[in-house]
């Protein structure tokens, strides 16, 4: 289970378009420094067969702020740290080059350290710029941590900054909830009072309009449609995850492998569902609300009767279309998604020893 003792939240705010030219110039400087770090790392590895550290890269960048680039020394240090961290994360000697122009241009990105951005007089002050933003959070009440300024595909810029929030104290006793994620039914719930949520069609609904814009080669229209799809999906996931985090004291979700399923026949539907984003939202919103959150192994959850533990449910690809079934052992009628959610909840509560594989062992005992 996961509970965050000192929650950190990322606030994302739209920057007014009048600063776009200055931020674009900064992002080109960031790309230049990033590519220098990339080339330096590769050259040292070829010559000395070792991986250069982020601190050593920073030493090579000493005095670079005097070369007339649009960013200061604090941004240089943050770029070096980010580069070293991402290279270690991806286990590579070098990473992709950041491209400043052309059709394959990298989206703008400007990292900054804690307290490099200061909120004063209704503006975010950063590297000599006084950035106007649409403040929907009341930024004057927060102390800024590290973050970045980023660009989206439509050329809009956003301030992404981490802030510390006070951990919520658990309130009155609330029910626990198990959630089974799927394609036909986006979320099946263990709580019978809560209706299951049908899968949405964010991409499918706008796919004809997107195809028309792509055939007409209207790049601006294509980007706008993609943004609308993403915004609709994000709004749906935010509303659902917020409501669940507020109403339940503990939430357990199946660990369905979205990245693996996205490579199969139902890739569009899997990507359109946004399972990983939904789980991420639930994780930090439960931390804010003082609730428990955990991802549990969902193997065999759809096949196992949540009442008697017998594996009498639909199996294999042929059984995917069966949404309701009757347990041949105890006679209980099950909704496929709600039954799986009850099993996930049971695992989350540690009622089934050894995790979800115990379902198989329990089933064997029942049949014996």
Oligomer: single chain
**Which CATH class of the largest domain?**
Alpha Beta
Structural class from helices and strands? alpha+beta
Q: How many E-type strands? A: 14
Order of helices and strands: EHHHEEEEEEEEEHHEHHHEEEHH
Look at the structure and give the mean pLDDT: 87
Strand content: 15-25%
**In the CATH scheme, what's the topology name of the largest domain?**
Nucleotidyltransferase, domain 5
Task: Give the termini separation.
Answer: 34 Å
The order of strands across the largest sheet is: 10-9-8-11-12
Described by the principal axes of the CA atoms, the overall outline is elongated
The CATH architecture designation of the largest domain is 2-Layer Sandwich
Residue stretches low in confidence (pLDDT < 50, at least 5 long) are: 351-368
Q: Return Rg in Å.
A: 25 Å
Number of domains: 2
- State the helix count: 10
Helix proportion of residues, in percent?
25-40%
Largest sheet: 5 strands, mixed
What does this structure look like?
This protein is α+β, with helices and mostly antiparallel strands. It has 2 domains: 157 residues, no CATH class; 192 residues, Nucleotidyltransferase, domain 5. It contains 10 helices and 14 strands. The strands form 4 sheets. It has a 5-stranded mixed sheet with strand order 10-9-8-11-12, with helices on both faces. α4 runs antiparallel to α5. The radius of gyration is 25 Å and the shape is elongated.
């Amino acid at each position: 289970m996961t509970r965050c003792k000192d929650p950190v939240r990322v606030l994302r705010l739209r920057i007014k378009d009048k600063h776009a030219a200055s931020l674009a110039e900064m992002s080109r400087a960031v790309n230049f420094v990033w590519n220098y770090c990339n080339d330096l790392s590769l050259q040292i590895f070829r010559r000395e067969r070792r991986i250069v550290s982020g601190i050593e890269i920073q030493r090579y960048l000493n005095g670079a702020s005097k070369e007339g680039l649009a960013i200061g020394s604090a941004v240089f240090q943050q770029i070096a740290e980010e580069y070293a961290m991402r290279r270690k994360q991806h286990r590579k000697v070098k990473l992709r080059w950041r491209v400043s122009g052309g059709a394959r241009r990298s989206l703008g990105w400007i990292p900054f350290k804690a307290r490099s951005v200061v909120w004063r007089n209704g503006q975010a002050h950063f590297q000599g710029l006084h950035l106007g933003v649409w403040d929907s959070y009341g930024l004057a009440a927060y102390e800024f941590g590290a973050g970045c300024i980023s660009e989206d595909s439509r050329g809009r810029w956003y301030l992404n900054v981490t802030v510390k929030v006070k951990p919520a104290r658990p309130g009155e006793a609330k029910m626990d909830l198990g959630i089974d994620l799927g394609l036909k039914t986006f979320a099946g719930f263990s709580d019978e009072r809560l209706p299951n949520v049908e899968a949405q069609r964010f991409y499918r609904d706008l796919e004809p309009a997107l195809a028309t814009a792509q055939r007409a080669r209207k790049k601006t229209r294509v980007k706008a449609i993609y943004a609308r799809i993403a915004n609709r999906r994000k709004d749906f996931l935010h509303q659902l995850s917020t409501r669940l985090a507020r109403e339940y004291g503990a939430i357990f979700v199946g660990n369905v492998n979205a990245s693996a399923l996205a490579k199969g026949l139902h890739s569009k539907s899997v990507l359109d569902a946004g399972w990983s984003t939904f789980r991420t939202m639930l994780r930090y919103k439960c931390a804010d609300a003082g609730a428990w959150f955990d991802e549990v192994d969902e193997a065999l959850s759809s096949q196992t009767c949540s009442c008697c533990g017998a594996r009498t449910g639909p199996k294999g690809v042929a059984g995917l279309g069966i949404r309701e079934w009757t347990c041949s052992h105890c006679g209980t009628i099950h909704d496929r998604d709600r039954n799986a959610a009850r099993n996930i909840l049971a695992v989350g509560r540690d009622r089934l020893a050894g995790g979800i594989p115990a379902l198989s062992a329990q089933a064997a005992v029942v049949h014996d």
